[in-house]
């Protein structure tokens, strides 16, 4: 039997949100709203003209949403917003937050199970949450055909695909209506406040592996010369106080060298003299 399992959020409070756009040129215009909330549909949500200002009201669950206006077939960001995110096509989407920022910014534990029709050793997931990196997040193998992964994600809507061996596939348990740009479709994952909140692990003085990225070592080991390598890893932003690399000869503290909106990056240079192949974080 195919045992698929995914987390289905319960119903939650919604907010009535008004989106408005005022064209620079007077006259009648065709203006639509396209974003995470309607799978970036291009003709589903039309704005109505109210004395020269075009408006629509949507009922939205708490979360972070990206969107654009389509003004007479031309994609436009919202001039009333101050935050933007890449749209995947060399431009930007506007960003709006609905609800309490503390809840929106908190990480949620999202469990996904995937059943492969063929016995495999490795299944990966790639999507908008990891910049479509097929090596960033690997499923844990439960049986020859069943795989499981726990993702740490903020409230929002994400697109993804499963790398099943050498093939890219949609997940049968998730809606898959968004075109992927290659004559196929992406699956959609909706993360809500009903998903379990991941506790902040700062100041707890314990060793954690959950929440750190599990990757092929070659993806983050940079050989400097015959005796030294630079090891780089990352954690979710401000979720750990420090990272230590543990080897057969002791511990080395990793230095944070870069941060972005979601991640902190750590690096340490390791001298290989006297070290066998056993090391870990």
Question: Could you explain the architecture of this structure?
Answer:
The protein has 281 residues and is an all-beta fold. 2% of the residues lie in helices and 47% in strands. The protein contains one helix and 24 strands. Strands 2, 3, 6, 7, 8 and 9 form a six-stranded antiparallel sheet that branches. Strands 11, 12, 15, 16, 17 and 18 form a six-stranded antiparallel sheet that branches. Strands 19-20-23-22-21-24 form a six-stranded antiparallel sheet, with no helix packed on it. A hairpin with a 4-residue loop joins strand 19 and strand 20. The chain is globular.
Features:
6-stranded antiparallel beta sheet, mainly beta, single chain, 281 residues, disordered N terminus, 24 strands, 1 helix
List the helices and strands and how they pair.
Layout (H helix, E strand, L loop, with lengths): L14 E7 L9 E5 L9 E2 L1 E3 L2 E8 L2 E9 L2 E3 L7 E3 L5 E7 L2 H5 L2 E8 L7 E5 L9 E2 L1 E2 L4 E8 L2 E9 L2 E3 L8 E2 L5 E7 L29 E3 L4 E9 L6 E5 L2 E10 L3 E9 L7 E2 L1
Antiparallel strand pairs: 1-5, 2-3, 2-6, 4-5, 6-7, 6-9, 8-9, 10-14, 11-12, 11-15, 13-14, 15-16, 15-18, 17-18, 19-20, 20-23, 21-22, 21-24, 22-23
